[in-house]
Design goal:
heterodimer, A: about 375 residues, alpha+beta, Rieske Iron-sulfur Protein, four-stranded antiparallel β-sheet, 6 helices, B: about 525 residues, mainly alpha, two-stranded antiparallel sheet, 10 strands, globular
């Protein structure tokens, strides 16, 4: 037997009784305790739940040992006072602990608040629980459950009432009335539909989905907006590129990745032979699975890796899918070099970028097998 | 008559005033006398409720500072590393909450931790209700409400962590948009209407904000209220025990001790969240940076309760159908929409499936122990295994990194595991349950071994046993299943040591009071029942 305050407070040894703590398997209830008394019988003639609530355990579970009572009371009081300490600590930390970012010790601000608030809450919470468990009367009582189902007569009467009302409306006989009402109510249900219209800019939806910011002759800009030139990239390196149009840097569908590798590594199909320049090849970074940016390039294997769902694409081979849930290769951007040596796009991507969608027509002339 | 204290006088006056107008006495009397059975596992739902209250409190505070807008601003707050960077007002105001509002970061972290705890408590509570059969008639409605709360909790959590518009949350939103795209026929339209246009659409933060702080919490609050009203009206279930029958409820009265314990427990749960919010960093959005549709970080992970869907998405083979000028994406649709739809749908109708299969249409107010219903427990273990495989798959990249394993092999193994492990879990669990029942029956039939060896006149040695104390045998015999009966028929019947309580009929009310006092055996240590 554990030696908790609760145990010491309770009935003398040998006299088993139900501990309010609850787990039936742990309780030490014996049949001696099934005394049919109500601890609240002193509450006057108007019994609260008279016959239904006999006490299972003897009414007298008041603590007996006055010393234990005193200890319990002190413990509860101490816990409640702990809450005061917590609140004071919280307010003091709130005001005095350095708060501004970068000030010495500012990293202790949030932990201090959390600590003292937890202290205050624990004080109140534990105080209440310990109080309830040690000093309050907590008899186990029995209440009868009431029948949930109504009695058959009540049911029949209710059903009859509904039926009668329904007949009083005349609906069963007047079919025209009924049908027109259903039609009217149905029409009303459709009324909100037009409100959906302006929730999204759906004009030319298919075209929006198919087009990105790339135009024939668009320069390829890097993260900082500088045009990328032939020779800027070492072999084996990559660069994020964006179309040279207003807001191109932030366009969600236009971001692309330029990779430079040994030209002989590229296994482009005949139709894409002149889309790369001297081992520089550009793919859309928008994953064809769920649209995460595919920007992790593995130099040795020339794999492009999507960090969201682990699709892997082969950068040497038209970014075909090697592994993962993506079903299509990354679209490729055909590039060229202008007279000044800057990279430019030959046009838009060869197919819509990003995840699949219902209207996506897959009959693109330059598409490669998957 | 004793003199009344001013406090008593005031309380009396107020009570009379209210009762004159509402006649509330009888309701209050009944409520204060309401009997609640006690068991530690009944606290799990309470934790969910209390977490929700903490969410409402902390969320209200955060809403005073958060600006749910994707309007672009240049950051000019205290956090030096991001100064001068263009970002959305949502992200900027979240930074302000973290660095310029005293206690703001603390509140944010409490809010996030409370959300994680809320979902965890719901899931564990759901498991408790499932494995003890608490969902059976008449409580099927409350089970369905519970499943609704689980789904709404996931949506609410997703909306919440999408709001700060940091790199991680924006990535999640883009995935959500792409998932919407995969709906056949109307997918593109749906995605455009929800996001305001082609991604990013420019409206999603503005729309998620009222959904997150008003619409969904409002529905959750209404459902929780209804959930609790039903518990109140139908009365709580209880485990079998002495005097506990199908037609009564044995426990503590609400007032005062039970209320004090439950109220105190709220503060303790709150304290845990305060401690977590203060001491354990969560979602440090300033490290992720503002959302940029062209950026992502390796190891992107959603909050844990969305993880299983991330996992199913990762495990799915890349099936896609392209025909007649249209593209149909089972590789996205199945794991992200069909799977949760089927899972939560099955979960919601499970009480009716079980009714159909067992033909049991009776009321059940006594809980079963998991072993008492091996098939259900097996099904539960099966579901948990299925879920855990998906959750693991959601972190396949992290597992690969930590354990230096091949990502591809982990994925293949988990794909196989998704189909092999759940049935295995079912079989093992069911056998375990039956064995535990057998052990129970052993105890019932033979009693408790005392370790005292007696030598009979014939020279034979026998061990003395004592019958189980009644509260054990009541618990052990409370449930009478066909499997149990069949099992019991194979057990040797011990003539001289009849079980103190023969298993009675299926959930028949058993004598609430044991007639003769059965002395408690004096034992060094009590045998554990579980």
């Amino acid at each position: 037997m554990t030696d908790s305050i609760r145990d010491r407070l309770k009935a003398p040894a040998g006299h088993g009784e139900q501990s309010g703590g609850g787990d039936t398997a742990q309780s030490s209830l014996t049949t001696n305790d099934f005394v049919q008394t109500d601890s609240r019988s002193s509450h006057g003639p108007e019994q609260t739940v008279p016959a239904a609530v006999p006490a299972v355990v003897p009414a007298d579970v008041h603590p007996r040992d006055p010393k234990a009572v005193q200890r319990a009371e002190r413990l509860v009081a101490a816990l409640f006072l702990l809450a005061v300490v917590g609140v004071v600590g919280f307010v003091v930390s709130f005001i005095l602990v350095p708060f501004d970012f970068g000030d010495e010790g500012f990293e202790y601000y949030t932990p201090a608040l959390g600590f003292f608030m937890a202290l205050a809450l624990t004080g109140v919470g534990a105080g209440a629980v310990v109080w309830a468990k040690t000093l309050m009367v907590d008899n186990e009582v029995i209440a009868e459950r009431h029948d949930l189902a109504s009695d058959p007569q009540e049911r029949a009467e209710t059903a009859a009432l509904i039926k009668q009302g329904y007949e009083e409306t005349g609906l069963p006989r007047r079919s025209m009335l009924r049908n027109s009402m259903l039609l009217g109510a149905g029409a009303l249900a459709l009324l909100p539909l037009p409100f959906l219209k302006d929730l999204g800019k759906t004009k030319n939806l298919t075209e929006q989905m198919a087009k990105t910011g790339w135009r024939p002759g668009s320069k390829l800009l890097d993260e900082l907006g500088r045009p990328v030139k032939l020779g800027d990239l070492e072999i084996g390196s990559v660069r994020s590129v964006f179309p040279d149009v207003p807001g191109g840097r932030r366009m969600a569908d236009s971001a692309a990745l330029m990779i430079r590798m040994q030209p002989e590594l590229l296994k482009s199909p005949e139709s894409r032979k002149d889309w790369a320049v001297d081992g520089h090849i550009v793919y859309s970074v928008i994953c064809t699975h769920l649209g995460c940016p595919v920007k992790l390039y593995e130099q040795q294997t020339h794999h492009l890796f999507c960090p969201c769902h682990q699709s892997i694409f082969d950068a040497t081979n038209s970014a075909k899918v090697l592994f993962g849930p993506a079903a299509r290769n990354l679209p490729q951007l055909a590039i060229a070099v202008d007279e000044e040596g800057y990279f430019v796009a030959q046009g838009d991507f060869n197919e819509p970028v990003g995840p699949s969608y219902w209207e996506r027509d897959d009959s693109y002339p330059d598409k490669v097998g998957t | 008559m004793a003199k009344q204290s001013p406090l008593e006088k005031g309380a009396n006056g107020t009570a009379v005033w209210v009762d004159d107008r509402l006649g509330s006495s009888s309701f209050i009397k009944r409520s204060l006398n309401k009997v609640f059975p006690d068991h530690w596992s009944f606290m799990l739902g309470e934790i969910a409720l209390y977490s929700f209250i903490v969410l409402l409190l902390s969320g209200t505070y955060l809403s005073l500072f958060f600006e749910g807008s994707s309007r672009e601003v240049i950051y000019d707050g205290s956090y030096a590393p991001l100064k001068g960077i263009p970002m959305s007002a949502a992200y900027s105001s979240t930074l302000d909450i973290s660095f310029d509002v005293r206690g703001g970061l603390f509140m944010r972290q409490i809010h996030h931790w409370a959300a994680l705890l809320f979902m965890a408590a719901i899931v564990v509570h759901l498991a408790r209700v499932f494995f003890t059969g608490a969902f059976r008639k008449p409580r099927e409605l409350n089970w369905i409400i519970g499943v609704g709360l689980l789904v709404l909790g996931i949506l609410e959590g997703f909306a919440g962590y999408s709001l700060p518009d940091d790199l991680l949350s924006g990535t999640g939103l883009r995935i959500a948009y792409s998932i919407a795209l995969s709906i056949p026929v109307i997918g593109t339209w749906a995605a455009f209407l929800v996001f305001g246009g082609e991604f990013p659409g420019g409206a999603i933060i503005e729309r998620l904000y009222p959904i997150h702080i008003l619409l969904v919490p409002g529905i959750i609050l209404a459902l929780i209220t209804f959930h609790m009203m039903l518990i109140w009206y139908q009365k709580h279930t209880q485990f079998a025990g002495p005097g506990r029958t199908e037609t009564n409820v044995v426990g503590s009265r609400l007032y005062p001790a039970y209320a004090a314990k439950a109220g105190g427990f709220f503060f303790l749960v709150f304290a845990v969240m305060a401690l977590l919010g203060g001491l354990f960093q969560i979602n440090p959005i300033w490290l992720y940076g503002p959302y940029d549709p062209t950026q992502v970080t390796a190891g992107s992970q959603p909050d844990w309760y969305v993880g299983f869907l991330d996992g199913s998405t990762r495990l799915m083979p890349n099936w896609e159908i392209r025909t007649l000028g249209h593209t149909f994406s089972p590789n996205v649709l199945l794991p992200t929409q069909v799977l949760p739809g089927v899972l939560f749908g099955l979960m919601a109708v499970y009480p009716f499936i079980e009714q159909k299969l067992t033909g049991d249409k009776g009321y059940h107010n006594l809980l079963e122990r998991p072993r008492d219903n091996p098939v259900r427990t097996g099904l539960g273990a099966m579901s948990i295994t299925f879920y855990m495989v998906l959750l693991l798959a959601g972190g396949n990249d992290i597992i690969a990194t930590i354990f230096h394993l091949s990502l591809n092999e982990i994925t293949y193994a988990l794909r196989a595991g998704l189909f092999i492990l759940p049935p295995l879990a079912y079989i093992v669990t069911k056998r375990l349950c039956l064995s535990l029942q057998r052990a129970d029956d052993d105890l019932l039939h033979h009693g408790i071994e005392t370790g005292t060896i007696r030598r009979l006149p014939s020279g034979e040695f026998v061990e003395e046993t004592v019958p189980l104390p009644p509260h054990y045998s009541v618990l052990l015999t409370a449930v009478d299943t066909p499997e149990r009966r069949e099992l019991a028929s194979h057990l040797p019947q011990v003539e001289h040591q009849a079980a103190p309580h023969q298993p009675k009929g299926f959930f028949k009310p058993r004598g609430s009071v044991v007639e003769a006092p059965v002395p408690r055996p004096e034992l060094e240590s009590e045998p554990s029942v579980d």
